[in-house]
Write a structure and sequence with these properties.
Three copies of one chain form a homotrimer. With about 500 residues, chain A is mainly alpha-helical. Chain A is about 45% helix and about 10% strand. Chain A has helices at about 5-20, 35-40, 45-55, 60-65, 75-80, 95, 105, 130-135, 140-145, 155-160, 160-170, 190-195, 195-200, 255-260, 260-265, 275-280, 280-290, 310-315, 385-400, 405-440, 450-470, 475-480, 485-505, and strands at about 115-120, 125, 175, 180-185, 205-215, 215-225, 300, 320, 325-330, 340, 350. In chain A, the strands form five sheets. A three-stranded mixed β-sheet of chain A has the order 7-8-9, covered by helices on one side. In chain A, strands 1-2 form a two-stranded antiparallel sheet. Chain A has a two-stranded antiparallel sheet with strand order 3-4. In chain A, α16 crosses α17 and α21 (about 450-470) runs antiparallel to α23. The radius of gyration of chain A is 26 Å and the shape is globular. Chain A starts with 5 loop residues before the first helix and ends in a 5-residue tail after the last helix. Mean pLDDT of chain A is about 95; it is low at about 1-30. Chains in contact: A-B, A-C, B-C.
């Protein structure tokens, strides 16, 4: 226990006293007598936390009581056979090994690194538990994650000047005079609700402030960019990411992470309709109809027995074994590990980038984009054919658990054709855009702020992307056809053409 | 039993005889022997109803058998401890107290008030069971409801001349000659499927009519505006509302009302995407992943034990207690009781109105709108800072069950910023609109029927609103970003600008 | 067992040997000891299939183990009382009667008809199990289905020259030069992901090819249009349809088919938002809130006891009985059997066509469309008033299980009014379109490829249709109002008007 002053010591004694009386009630609603007998010990510090928080934020304490963290210790977790392990550290410190993973165990890690550390009721507490803290036990997962595009999601959108201009054009407050529109820079708060709600904020400690709580006045760190659970959050301990993005709140549930609703917090239409497409696919249909007969908690996850159709996690990152125990795919928290092509067009679909940090890419136009305006990939920064084949083989291995080889081959051949054709439809719109710029109909200085420019963005960001996700999951024909699909690709091209011609006429510009 | 003629008396006797034989079968499929033993008695009248309706509308009888109404009596319900009571009347009449709450108990209330009362198989039956009838037992709930905006939803949209013009412009059938478009007034039937499907119809008794049924020819009241279950329905007994809007059909289920799908019948994109946003929020993710482990029937509803993330009802109206039995929020059927700001812009976001009846509001332009065209709130008709603080404190109390004070403060500061900025984006579009009107590009006589006017409506009704709901629930970044969010706010402004300039050119109007 | 060579015979012996050891493990995860004792015998051929596929495609074997096919034999299935039967054949051949319905039983049917038959590990196997194969046991269902529009869904969209032009205009890749847009014909692969993903592909056997599998090199049929599970798939045995469209994969589940998610694979916004509307309707609300207490497997399906609100299957095709065993509606796999009016406008709503094959229709303009451009139905090809009344009576019978006669009458009167008014709104847009064509503003040669033409398509294909589905289910007021509903119908008409006037001005065309 880290005590910082005499005054505080006294408080703690009182709280422990309170805890003694209260703790026997903990979770009485949901744990059987036998389970209670098997409950691991809580550290004295965590008992103190719970004593108060059971009264002041009871929901979060109860949530934790539903977690595996509250029901096991790192020492027990490390004894499991290799494939059943949910913890990848080979050892943990003695002070952690034999207690349940409680409040204090997580919120007190690495205080020296945490600019958000503060003295709370006599304990040195971090507001934010970061991936670096989680890596105490989940070492491999955090390591894998740190290489992913998700870990770099803040940089990738905010530091990259092209995307930064796009973000700014969309989210800045506009003012109008006559028909003239001017834009200011977006506020951090609005960004935190739109783009970086998913990508993650930069959490900065501005100092300390005093707040009024049910326990009275308290001194707490004054954070900006908080709260936020975006996947690329820049934490005040220098780490990146937010495990709670997918393992929400204090249940740290593998069940929740394996259900598609979790991915569906961010991977949504119109730009990334992965979740929307999944729901309407055959896989999604079987999931929504039969999930109540499945097991979302088993490790490893047994194909056919724990589930009879994949969720997002099955194909993209879970450890999957066959009913006879054969490993079909290894777990990875680098969510690109089974991906060879990037469906998400920037502005064209392209091979996955080598590094999760995409700000380092330079295309032949000198811009930090994975493809040039005319379509050539920035190959130096993208994975090569061998790496593509390696990753595709892992994914095909998952497909092959239920589908035969010819089915799978035909499926991916179809997807390749879709990538080619949607890239062509993006190119068609880009040709119109280039023509409009060249004739002075719109101004390329900011390529994202005028009407025809916004039509062009929709072509690659909404419509081409939607069709590719529908193709990848052989599902959701609406997203391939009438809803942001081929209908929209073709309609939008006609709208662009008409709008170019109308604006040319209005401006007195002669088109050939 | 209310008998009206000798002929009818005879029918009833026969039916009771039938009932004697049939009733033992009731619900055999779903009730255990012990439960059957504990079943409360049914009134003789209700037994008669069931004897026939079990044959003629069996689904609804079975639905009722799943209800608490079929399994308890008002007398038993009133004996429960205060917090566990689901009935707020202090006493009920003797004729009701010791019978299950069956068909006759509800469909025979206050016949003198019911213009829809008719003689049906010898009984004086009301077609519609109204909130006033439900208040026999659920007195407090109906009283609370009567002060809500929901109770006045019909008046608020149909009587208010501004909204009435909007409704009419949208739902009237149009005719075309050349390029001239003319509109007729909407039919009541079309209104009943669009705006007042949710807001509620005015149910009028036009007389009596004869219909052919499986039981032969029957005389029944001839109702207009029926069927409908809108929240502000004007009932033929003079009352307003429809309890079945949220407690559907004959199960009168608290479980259904507490699930978000119920609110999701009406609170939908693009104008009020509360349900859409919830589903994609962190709260929604936890609900969709874990609801099968929760208890939706407990009264009071225990935070953390009955559920680990809120549904709509948790934050907005349910009686919530902590695991130690402390009341966190009192139940209210005035759904604005915990709301201080009205996110729904008319045309700007504003403090909640004092009265559920918003037709009485006058803004500084003399219009029945809560804000002026230039943004000033009609403060006289809106709640003041004290009342706002009082209501916000209740909501914050619910948040505080799981979230700490600083988290909550930052959350609502972010929401306040969003309200300010979306109001500014509404103002920007309003400036463009005013300019277009002033230049004669469109005609303000009806401000809702031309192309640019419809763009302007989308700015405040669809896009500003969507972002505010996403902000309030820290969720659904698509609704804040690309789907009806900031993307749409900015794109729409550019579209308005271009359309104004194109139409000016077409009409030969010179813009400065 | 069909052996084709000595080499193959040897393989089979080895595989049977493998099977002997492996089969006892089958499904150990999900079947109790007693169930295992009651398990029907597997044919020797199916045992052989499973021996390998348990290793190579384990998911699909496990999926089949969850099916009724794996747990019963045709002989047992035929012994059930009439209403409980899930098999409509009066007899099956001896070789099938007493074995579970396994891999070989289905994939070896009618090899002489199957151009996709090939020798696989010594067995003559069909890649595709077609409706004609399923009819071995499910005779009536396949017969009913063959009369439906679904069975003809490929012809209806691909052979019909009008719809073919629409399909081609949408899905063909476009090229751009200046502002000139040219379109090529769509590829089969893109069609297979958009229109005919649902309608079904034509599966052609192009020859034989060699593929690399986990078992080594294999010779397999080279199929085009595969994989696909569209409802009107043209199979290589000459049959049409795909039972797995609704009874997915190897569980052949009645539960899945009865849940709305199955219909929701195709019946989606913006053109056919039946599923979207259902979810937001009162019926949908009750389903999503209470399905976990229902029984989706019972045959017959008991209204009120197995479920308390309908899913798509309840109203459209399931065998429904009352709790007392009275048949409310007979099962039909002709999904139009309870439909009298076709809500889906082509371009106007109209009586259901007499034949599922709609390519034979000729309207008064000489086009293969059920209505003329001016609205007159092609009555000769549509069902008459008597047939309409007959079908409506079946549907009303289902409604009547829960709703009274007057409620139902009012409901359908409202729907009739909606059909009339949405037809009028389609006519208004058609008048604008005709005017634009007559003035040379757009070119009618292809009526589906220019901007104003696309606006006109949205009027009847998206907006009028959405409102009709919302009307039919008294639900989803957003689809009737602001989301693709009356808002869109009225806004789109204004947009068409403005665009016609702007293009006229641009082209120097004088409008009266």
């Amino acid at each position: 226990m880290t005590l910082v002053s005499k005054r505080v010591k006294k408080t703690v004694v009182i709280l422990l006293f309170v805890a003694a009386g209260i703790f026997v009630l903990t979770g009485s609603g949901s744990i059987t007598a036998q389970e209670q007998a098997e409950q691991p010990k809580l550290s004295p510090q965590t008992q103190t936390c719970i004593a108060c928080h059971k009264l002041y934020t009871p929901g979060i304490v109860e949530d934790w009581l539903t977690s595996r963290h509250s029901k096991t210790t790192p020492a027990q977790a490390m004894k499991k056979p290799e494939l059943e392990r949910r913890i990848s550290a080979q050892s943990v410190s003695e002070e952690l090994a034999d207690f349940a993973v409680g409040c204090y165990e997580c919120h007190s890690r690495n205080p020296e690194k945490h600019k958000d550390n503060f003295v709370h009721m006599g304990f040195k507490i971090n507001v934010i538990v970061s991936p670096n803290d989680c890596s105490t036990c989940h070492t491999e997962e955090v390591k894998q994650y740190s290489d992913s595009k998700k870990a770099h999601a803040w940089d990738n959108i905010i530091v990259n000047p092209v995307y930064h201009t796009l973000v700014t054009s969309i989210t800045g407050v506009k003012k109008v005079e006559g028909t003239k529109i001017t834009s200011s820079d977006p506020t951090e708060q609005t960004l935190n609700e739109s783009c970086i709600a998913c990508h993650g904020t930069e959490v900065r400690v501005k100092g300390t402030k005093s707040i009024k709580t049910a326990m009275g006045e308290m001194q707490v760190p004054d954070l900006s960019g908080w709260p936020n659970q975006g996947v690329g959050r820049k934490n005040p301990d220098g780490s990146v990411g937010s495990c709670t993005a997918c393992h929400p709140r204090h249940s740290f549930s593998i069940e929740i992470a394996r259900k598609p609703y979790t991915c569906g917090q961010c991977h949504l239409e119109p730009d990334v309709p992965a979740y929307n497409v999944y729901k309407e696919s055959k896989h999604g249909n079987i999931f929504t109809s039969k999930w109540h007969t499945w097991n979302f908690n088993n490790v490893p996850w047994v194909i056919g027995q724990d589930f009879t159709a994949p969720t997002c996690a099955t194909c993209h990152n879970s450890l999957i074994v066959s009913p006879t125990g054969k490993v079909i795919a290894q777990r990875s928290h680098n969510f690109g590990a089974r991906l060879w092509v990037r469906l998400f067009g920037l502005i064209y679909s392209h091979p996955q980038p080598k590094s999760g940090n995409t700000t380092i890419i330079k295309n032949k136009d000198g811009l930090p984009l994975p493809t040039a305006f005319t379509g050539e990939p920035a190959s130096e920064f993208l994975i090569d054919k061998d790496e593509q084949a390696k990753r595709k083989a892992i994914m095909v291995g998952v497909c092959n658990s239920c589908h035969n080889t010819d089915w799978i081959n035909n499926h991916f051949a179809k997807m390749d054709n879709t990538i080619k054709e949607t890239n062509e439809m993006t190119a068609a719109a880009t040709n119109l855009m280039t023509y409009a710029w060249s004739k002075g109909i719109e101004d390329k200085t900011n390529p994202f702020d005028e009407t025809i420019e916004k039509m062009w963005i929709k072509q690659w960001l909404f419509y081409s992307n939607s069709i590719r996700y529908a193709s990848a999951m052989t599902g959701a024909p609406d997203y391939a056809a009438f809803k942001n699909g081929w209908w929209s690709l073709s309609e939008n091209l006609q709208n662009m053409k008409d709008h170019i011609e109308l604006k040319a006429k209005m401006k007195g510009i002669i088109l050939k």
